[in-house]
Fold this protein.
Amino acid sequence: MASLSDVKKRIEVLKKAINKYRYFYHVLDKLDISESALDSLKHELKTLEDKYPQLVTSDSPTQRVAGKPLPFFEKVQHKTPMMSLEDVFSEEEFLDWVKRIQKLTGPHELEFFCELKMDGFAVSLIYENGFLKEGSTRGDGKVGENVTQNLRTVESIPIKLETHEKFPTSKIEEAVKKLISQGVIEARGEVYITKKSFEDLNRQQKKKGLEIYANVRNIAAGSVRQLDPQITASRKLSFMAYDLIAGASQTTHQEEHAICRALGFPVDKLSILCHTPAEIFAFRKKVKKLRDSLPFQIDGIVVNVNSNATFDNLGFVGKAPRGAVAFKFPAQEVTTQVENIIVQVGRTGALTPVAVLKPVNVGGVVVSRATLHNGDEIERLGIKIGDTVIVRRAGDVIPEVIKVFTQLRTGKEKKFSMPQKCPICGNKVQKKSGEVILKCINLKCPARQREDLYHFVSRKAFNVVGLGPKIIDRLLDEGLIQDAADLFLLKEGDLAVLDRFGEKSSQKLIKSIQNHKKISLSKFIYALGILHVGEETAIDLSKNFNAIKDFKDVSIADFQKIPNIGDVVAHSIFFWFSDKNHQKFLNKLEKAGIIIEKAEKRKNQKLEGLSFVFTGELESLARMEAQERARNLGGDISESVSQKTSFLVSGKNPGSKYEKAKKLGVKILNEKDFLKLLI
């Protein structure tokens, strides 16, 4: 049996190793060991600490999530104000800013340190004698809130400061080491959530029928200000340092970045020292091109006067320092008016309110409609018909309303309430306990039927060429079909009643429908539109069953045994196949001549046991085709990168998956290498 002294030594060794790997991963973007190996080290440490609680210290990696939920946050007075920045949007505005500060500094040449402007939540971290003592929010710049418990849960924030790299000078190194041992160091930076973590979080929210989070900044701010640190920990937040408040003999902002990195804080790797506005413009242009491929959201760059002495001498104007400016990208947020609010009914029966807008250009695209997500979001915004609002393209794609200007109301605005009945079929709507989404429960609701049909014939399902939403709408309106099975019973003469449908076009459509009676089991499962069952889940199911009839007598527990299928998905599949109406529908499809083919296992399964994730634009083949070719050789396809991913196949303009693959050490293939792998 090991002595207490030996256990203590082992605990210290484990703590040091885990902190070292934290630094490698979060600061250097390297993972020297696998995540599972790192988890094993953490597990050993936790086991020892549980057995010897007297040896647990506050700087232990196991103590990141500690403490009970707080009743409220205590106020914190900032010794040095946390100021906000002035915004400029054009090169002309930026040059005006340079001219203003040069009037105060004189004609001598200025250096500028440029870095990314993160879309996150500003915080302050105070270390005493090398240990994290206090973490706080910006608040009003002078007084913030103590959120130490929550910030300890952010893995990229060191709990204990250690030196990892060389410092800019020996003088700085000496000063910093002295502060670590017996002094105070304050680092400031941005807490943020990566695009991947944000997507994962909203995916989970959607599965649970809960509120979809609107943007990355709000979720970062909301997560940091949770009274329960367990909730904060579950959000997988990250941190990036941008400032150092400490008497460490630093003379420039660039040196502060280097000190932060040496102490184990992640810093902006794209940051650069510039000497002229032309260099700054070029950097901003470069960053704008890279914007979509970054793993996090940014909305511009920050330009700082590099000299700390000059920065301090410039002072402040209002709540903003004169020596720094936020050089923003073109506005992705604009104002317009709400002309109406309508409600759309989706395939699952979900009622989604949509704002009909006075057309407006948002980020180069004319927008006339924007999602309002759900009734709770309408209540949160306090939006009325006739309101002036701010519209943003979420992720630069989906338009959404983020703010209402109540002060601009005239009194003619009309209140909107979510309907108690489905606007399409008139049936009652309901909201399950714990959910925010209203749903029409009428399975025969015309809106649900239409969406079901659109999905049934879509590219990833039956892929009936020539059968789009407009034709389906006409077939439904004329009473020629009631469900998807009726499509396969149509005759050429049935289409004669439709305007603009001649003999040739009728023949062509009927032939296309009949040619798609044969379908693989996986695509058929996907076509059914079962809640929570996407393309990859359908493929997983097809690997475990020979025919669709086999699903009828399968228990929830048996579905849960299938890889990648959890409790929510298992319940959804079980109840779909248990429904008598769905059983009748399956019988009707069989009578209509649908043939479901079980994919035969091919002899050449050279990619069996390998998993692939695709990102970016491929040149020689479509992504769906590439995925299918990998599947045909036994490969598994996933939408997200993990330690278990064998290969990331990367095309042009790769997204955040590329950066995560690099971090995890996943092998990255270009299109040429991927095609070689298939031969």
